[in-house]
Specification:
With 142 residues, the protein is mostly helical. It is built from seven helices and two strands, in the order αααββαααα. α4 crosses α5. The mean pLDDT is 92.
């Protein structure tokens, strides 16, 4: 399974903003730290704000901050809400067109594997991801 770039950037954005601890961040600052596109990151930030993970403040002195405490942001939840988690067509919520769906052993195995993947992510919060804040900051402040 490979997470999309959108999910990757979403998680990196949350990590960056969480380390600021109430100090506002900007899209430009985050994009520069990770050497990623500001345009793409703007879409990521918009999505994270819509989901309540970020707060955005417009105007002079504006920026981004977390919408909740890092210990309340579950990584499994973030990935589920951003990513298409169906690794194959038959695992989609709306179902697929596979004629052996429902009786296929592969379908159930992939469902269990996906659940195991998320069980690991569900053990983590954003606070856990910034536990090594000093090392993270040293890499981001080039």
């Amino acid at each position: 399974m490979e997470l999309t770039q959108f999910t990757d950037y979403s998680l990196r954005t949350l990590i960056f903003v969480a380390m600021k601890k109430g100090e506002l961040s900007s899209v430009r600052e985050i994009a520069s730290a990770y050497s990623i596109s500001e345009n793409h990151l703007t879409k990521v930030v918009h999505s994270l704000a819509k989901l309540g993970y970020l707060q955005t403040f417009r105007g002079r002195g504006g920026g981004l901050d977390l919408g909740m405490d890092p210990s309340e942001i579950g990584i499994g939840d973030v990935v589920r809400r951003i990513e298409n988690t169906a690794v194959v067509e038959c695992l989609r919520k709306e179902g697929g067109s596979c004629c052996i769906a429902g009786i296929c052993k592969l379908q159930s195995a992939l469902h269990r594997a996906t659940e195991a993947f998320f069980a690991e992510l569900d053990k983590l919060t954003l606070a856990d991801l910034i536990a090594n804040e000093k090392e993270l900051k040293s890499r981001l402040n080039k």
